[in-house]
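User: ok so my PI wants both of these folded by tonight, can you help

Assistant: No problem, let's get them done. Here's the first:
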Amino acid sequence: MTSKARVLGAFHKMDGRPDRPPLQFDLCRQLTDHFGKKLGIEPDYSLSYYEDLTYRISANEIRTKMGSDCIVVGGTVASDFEIKTVRENVTLNEFGMEMKPSDLYVDVVKCPLAEAGSVEDIEKYQFPDPYAPGRFDKAKRDIEKYGKEYFVIGDVELSIFEMAWHLTGMTEYMIPMAMGESWIELLNDKVEAWTFGLAKQLAELGVDALWFGEDLGTQTSMLISPDMWREKFKPRYHRMIKKLKKINPDVMIIMHSDGAVAPLIDDFIEMGIEVYNPVQPNVPGSDPNELVEKYGGKINFFGGIDQQELLPSGDKAALKKEIEERASIMAKDGGYLMAPAHIIQADVSPDMVEAMIENIKDIKL
């Protein structure tokens, strides 16, 4: 069974039962470098327009050699873009965000629209061109190399809400949105156009799935009310999905959101989203038994392995138990792509990464 067939079978897109739960994972730079050295493969980094996404779309050769059933591709910076150093280790990305590395992430330390307060301010701001030369050169290369054997996910994350507030700052975005200021709608229009431009090109390249995403939840609740999300963002996703399905009727739609966002799952299904990620454990609404009982057969699940506490703990026995229990609940009737609930960060040992992969590969369905 090829990796692509394993994923398509799990998602009920082809006949036949997968031999085991399919697997996907992302690695931070430190772990990518470690496993690249161990495998004798030079990591191939594809610099994304937003730095943290780099590690989603890089090193497909390393991840497939390790056991991933999926590759992830997406937009890189334009071919003529040059990183500018602002000061010390702070750089300017393609959106004009000042970016500074932290222990686990690259943080936005200055937003280009932090002072925005009018339609004119948004009209003056120049978005990057989603169709810029070179943006999908590496995606095309990896699709040609891996697309027949592996399930291809096209990543268009930081899709609307999260990209917009990264341009302004969270407080600077949330308060005007709650007050109904018109410039917020124009900003959202521009972010939607950017996101659709990326997604359109990936759909045309023939990816198997498009991965939209933004973090809408905290550990206990949503960042904005479900009603506000339905008013401000649901129609935008609905129209994008309809247009993308006309371009590529077979493409699956994945929606990512960290946090307690279970109140939106019915909306996701209504919009035509077929896969919900990352099914973050340890937040309200993510109990696997309850999810399968309520939504099994209506939407597929992707993720679920605890990356906050379990993987960093080094407890291999607990990891094995968690994988076996989650597979027995979520994978028994298909509909599940097993993965950590986030990019695996540097607080996870290489041994735990390898144990996770081997435990999943040992499961028989």
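One down. Here's the second:
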Amino acid sequence: MVRILLVLHNCGAQVMKKFGVRSALVVVLVVLCSVVRAGEVKLYAAASLTDALTELSSVYQKTHSDIVIKKSFAGSSILAKQIENGAPADIFISADVDWVDYLQKRGLLLMESRKKLLGNELVLIAPGASDINVMLDSTFNFPANFSGRLCTGDPASVPVGKYAKQSLSYYGWWDKLSSRIVGTDDVRTALAFVERGECGLGIVYKTDAQLSKKVKVVATFPASSHTPIEYPGALTKTASQDAKAFWVFLQSDEAKVVFTRYGFILLN
């Protein structure tokens, strides 16, 4: 507060020379009111939502210039643990129901605000120059038909990794592949490993794969091979009124158009 007052004092002194005491006082009061009125929305969301939510935040701020949306994107598990440990989040959007359930059971979310926003698809990707072919069939010897490692999220905690393990188990491939799995902190890191050729294959979301020009989709896992990929979200118990308004916006028809353009499936 002292720093703000010093800045205002220096600014006011310069204005006083030109316009006089009263005009300078008006300017100072206007600036001070702007500082007081500025609001923050702290959004914590799964890494796969980075591009869509960054765009939507910009769209929202064009009509709400007094609001600053501070975004944190990472693996859902990492964000949930941060919130549990006191991170000042207003909105949490996960890439699976487990981590929203986790925070809800600990009494950190407003239950009535919880919504299933979006869905996604799970795909197998390879570097763009790869010529690998994969059949999604239990009779196909997948582990023997590629060399190197397969990147995805950490199967123990990261949603995309959990979905990946379910799909690989569905075809009977998990046990032979588990030692070759590189588990990352979030889906974007797994995508980057495949882009650089550090992993011969990767399992990510369709929405992430279509953003990259350096990978290609080898196969799309059927919905029956894993639990539904859902993005639930909710307000935290400490959410501000500005956050509540932004959360409503993220469920609006305007937001749905953007989510659809990025390849997400609408669930409400």
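The chain is about 45% helix and 20% strand. Residues 2-19 form the longest helix (18 residues). Good luck tonight!
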